Amino acid sequence: MKLYLISNDITLRSRWIGILSSLHPTTLSEFSFDIATPSIIMITDQVLADVSDDTLKQFFKNRVMILSMTPNFTEAQRFLALGAMGYGNAMMHGSHLYSVYQALEEGKIWLHPDFITLMISQMHDRNNSKEKSLEILASLSKREQEVALMLGDGATHQEISDVLDITVRTVKAHATAIYQKLNVKDRLALSLLLHT
User: Fold this and answer.
1) E-assigned strands of 11-91?
2) Domain residue ranges of the chain, discontinuous segments joined by +
3) pLDDT at residue 128 is higher than 70
4) For residue 91, which of 8, 39, 19 has the smallest C-alpha distance?
5) Which of 28, 33, 38, 87 could tie 6 with a disulfide, CB 3.0–4.6 Å?
6) In CATH, what number does 2-111 get?
């Protein structure tokens, strides 16, 4: 799948090229629809500042990751609601940029863990009843249900470990089993299942 790196900041573009050179990216300095389909696009929010929401919806039919020098949750929500597949810091570590590429290549959404926690806590505010959640979790063991409810409410592995007095490794093992049994890929998907 073709990779495009789009930023009007030459220093930032050069950094990305250095990190992702093995993927042979094409670079652009401004917004464009002249992009091969299907493609993965990593683009700065600055380039999209004057682009209308309707145009963004069309553009986001590609697999688009928005990168910001000053990431904020409100902007992340807006871009994701319009169809972007990811949002993060433009200066993130190189290994994370590769993770972004891999996630988008697999058709997955990529977000910084802090944003995932915020989204989950907002969904929790629109909570389904605990009874409905337990119906959804009926195929899980009692301990897996406890872990699933806490994961769905945005608790970290360490917080779950502390509350349930089990190791973080055990929490991770339960989380893996939960995701497999419920056919969800991560805790954001679990939270959506429990709270929508």
Assistant:
1) 26-28, 39-44, 63-68, 86-89
2) 2-111, 118-195
3) no
4) 19
5) 28
6) 3.40.50.2300
